[in-house]
Structure formats: C-alpha cells, structure tokens
Amino acid sequence: MKRTPIIATLVLLFSLFSGFAQAEGEAVNINTADVATLASLNGIGDSKAQAIVSYRESHGPFASAEDLALVKGIGARTVEKNAERLTVK
C-alpha cells in the first residue's frame, strides 16, 4: 500500500489553504491603494472602490481607517469587517 499519493494530496491541500490565508491578511493602505486592490476588500466592489479613490482625490488622504465610512455607500459595518486589513500609513 503506497502512501505517497495521500501525502502529496495532503501537502497540496495544506499549501493551498495557507496561501489563501496569507492573501486574506494582506494590509491595504487606503491612501495609496488602486481600485483593484480596494475592490479586494470584503464588501467593496469596483464601484465602491472607485468611490474611495474619488473621495480621496477630492478630500485628501484619510486620517484613520474609520474615515472610510465617510465615503458614500460605505458604512461602519464594512469598515469593521475589514478593520484588520486597513491601514493609512
């Protein structure tokens, strides 16, 4: 009985799951991120990402991650869901 295929499958699954976990945890600087990067946030699609960029261009950089809720269409709940990934470095 060969265990190589089972071990190889387990290693592959582990590497896939660890890769997804790292991708989720990547910080997003809301003062410099482009539309595609902002759209990767939970609850933010292309139109909201564009609204963030437009707001930033009109009002200047965000002072804190919580200021993201000032953008029309983005509420405190969306900011809360993404709090660990948001930064304003």
Automatic annotation (TrEMBL):
Signal found in the keyword field: yes
User: Would you kindly state one Gene Ontology biological process term found in this protein's UniProt entry?
Assistant: DNA repair
Q: Name one GO cellular component term.
A: type II protein secretion system complex
Which residue positions does the secretion signal occupy? 1-23
Which Gene Ontology molecular-function terms are recorded? DNA binding
Keywords in UniProt for this one? Signal
Every copy of the Helix-hairpin-helix DNA-binding motif class domain together lies at 36-55, 66-85
**One Pfam family hit:** HHH_3
What InterPro entries does this protein map onto? Competence_ComEA_HhH, Endo/Exo/Phosphatase_dom_1, Hlx-hairpin-Hlx_DNA-bd_motif, RuvA_2-like
Q: Which SUPFAM superfamilies match?
A: RuvA domain 2-like (SSF47781)
Q: What is this protein called?
A: Helix-hairpin-helix DNA-binding motif class 1 domain-containing protein
Source species of the chain: Marinobacter santoriniensis NKSG1
